[in-house]
Design brief:
The complex is a heterodimer of chains A (about 230) and B (about 240).
Chain A (H helix, E strand, L loop, with lengths): L1 H19 L44 E11 L5 E12 L4 E11 L4 H6 L7 H4 E20 L3 E18 L2 E15 L4 E14 L6 E15 L1
Chain B lengths: L1 H17 L6 E4 L3 E5 L8 E6 L3 E8 L2 E6 L4 E5 H4 L2 E2 L21 E10 L2 E11 L4 E11 L3 E12 L7 E16 L9 E15 L4 E13 L6 E13 L1
Antiparallel strand pairs in B: 1-4, 1-7, 2-3, 4-5, 5-6, 8-9, 8-15, 9-10, 10-11, 11-12, 12-13, 13-14, 14-15
Classes of the chains: A mainly beta (about 230), B mainly beta (about 240).
Chain lengths: ~230, ~240
């Protein structure tokens, strides 16, 4: 109850003070002029001897993101080895760990069965396209330097990755576990060359029964830190 | 298409190469500052900058700062040493990294969760925005990958954290969204369905280190089908997230 009265009084005060600043009030009181200094008395002015410091918050550019593209070859189990293209983005959480997302695409070839039997193909052209994404983590297991000759040294790291995602192949989206290892060499402070080996593990039921397949990929990529 | 992608990549790379901003200059206040050849504890120290000298900060990668000294030597310095340097105003260089105190008070959270949705594998990516310490809006997209069907869902909901001070925080969630299920082509008499879905869930998130969170949750979904009966699915998943 007391609260309510307080709110009522407060809002009345606020309203009144708000009204006093309304534009239709033209009888604004003029600021009173300061009292004139008495004759013979010098005004006391404090002159601080300390210089005013300008404090600025440090703006430091961070480069924890890494993005780029790769190309290589992908062996789709039972369906030949083909060219694969992909893109990769990573966020470096610490000097040891990073989170990464990859996506890539390739066209699978003919299986030995299709080639030898001479019968109708098992898959249509669109079903033969192998498209994947994977989200996961990486660990920079072996950070170090690569020496080329006596004068050049490039920072590098060998890392292990583990991820999960999906692959669209043979007319269905398939749950895919991705395990890999790669090497990153920084040819500039902001530019890295990657050599990656990855295994895409998934169940495929194209050839009659459901079986676990391992699809190995070797790629060469270029990424930039930003 | 490939040419376009290559062109885009080239533009992106040149944009990054030219985008470096000029960082602040700092004065060494510790006895010395160790410059390493790379951003990591394994890289060798190749130079030390003495107390009173000034270095310019170029960029930062995780816990390492790239600096240039007065003679133009570039090296990487650890955050611990960098925090002991002084700005021209005489104040310490403030490095406000997320820590345990910020967990629970953070605004944004992004994570990846893996688990099981009604017998099928599920991969979920989610983002959350907190209105206050207790209440957050959450957006999730998921890919459901089963043996006989696959699908996606997108949901929006709210989560409530009763005790944001704890290191391990239980939370409740409710929300709604859309689910699409596509049976595999080999099955007869089924077709792709898109239905509205609602969920209620319970979960827990725990602070690990820096901006890292581990999160696990169980949700009960009700799919509003156009058949006679609604469908109910249970989902559990676990994963990592980070906040910022």
């Amino acid at each position: 109850m007391e609260n309510r009265i307080r709110i009522l009084l407060l809002s009345a005060v606020l309203l009144a003070s708000g009204c006093s600043y309304m534009p239709w009030r033209n009888d604004t009181p003029e600021a009173e002029p300061p009292p004139p200094p008495e004759a013979g008395e010098a005004p006391v002015v404090i002159d601080p001897a300390v210089e005013r410091r300008e404090i600025e918050t440090a703006k430091i550019d961070t480069e924890n993101w890494e993005a780029g593209a790769y190309v290589g070859s992908l062996s789709v189990e039972d369906f030949e080895v083909n060219v694969v293209y992909g893109a990769r983005i990573a966020y470096h959480l610490s000097e040891d760990f990073f989170a990464e997302a990859i996506a890539g695409t390739s066209d699978a070839g003919l299986s030995s069965f299709e080639r030898l039997s001479g019968g109708a193909p098992l898959l249509t052209d669109s079903e033969r396209q192998f498209t994947y994404y994977s989200l996961g983590f990486g660990w920079n297991a072996l950070p170090g330097e690569i020496f080329l000759g006596g004068k050049r040294a490039y920072n590098s790291a060998v890392y292990l990755t583990l991820g999960a995602g999906a692959t669209r192949f043979a007319g269905a989206d398939r749950f895919t576990i991705t395990a890999g290892a790669g090497a990153r060499v920084l040819i500039r402070d902001w530019l890295a060359v990657h050599l990656d080996m990855r295994d895409y593990i998934m169940d495929v039921d194209v050839l009659g029964r459901n079986k676990s397949t391992h699809n190995y990929e070797a790629t060469l990529g270029l990424t930039a830190f930003f | 298409m490939m040419r376009l992608a290559a062109c885009g990549l080239l533009i992106f790379l040149t944009a990054i190469a030219t985008a470096r901003a000029e960082g602040p200059s700092v004065t060494v206040a510790d006895p010395y500052l160790e410059l390493r050849t790379g951003p990591g504890r394994g890289f060798p120290v190749f130079h030390v900058v003495e107390r009173g000298e000034t270095v310019r900060v170029e960029t930062r990668r995780t816990d390492w700062f790239q600096v240039v000294d007065a003679d133009g030597r570039e090296g990487w310095v650890h955050k611990g040493q960098m925090a002991e340097t002084l700005l021209p105003a005489g104040v310490k260089l403030a490095i406000d990294d997320p820590a345990r105190e910020d967990f629970g008070a953070h605004r944004r959270e992004v994570g990846l969760l893996l688990g099981d949705y009604g017998g099928a594998n599920v991969v979920t990516l989610y983002g959350a925005y907190a209105f206050n310490e207790h209440l957050a809006a959450e957006l999730a997209v998921a890919h459901i990958l089963g043996n006989f069907s696959d699908g996606q869902y997108a949901t929006i909901g709210v989560t409530h954290v009763p005790v944001p001070e704890w290191r391990i925080q239980p939370f409740l969630s409710i929300g709604t969204g859309v689910i699409r299920i596509r049976p595999e082509g080999t099955l007869v008499g089924t077709e792709e369905r898109t239905d509205q879905v609602a969920y209620a869930g319970i979960g827990v998130r725990a602070y690990m280190a820096r901006r890292f969170i581990v999160r696990g949750e169980v949700k009960e979904y009700v799919v509003f089908t156009d058949r006679d009966e609604n469908e109910e699915d249970v989902e559990w998943k676990i994963g990592f997230a980070f906040f910022f």
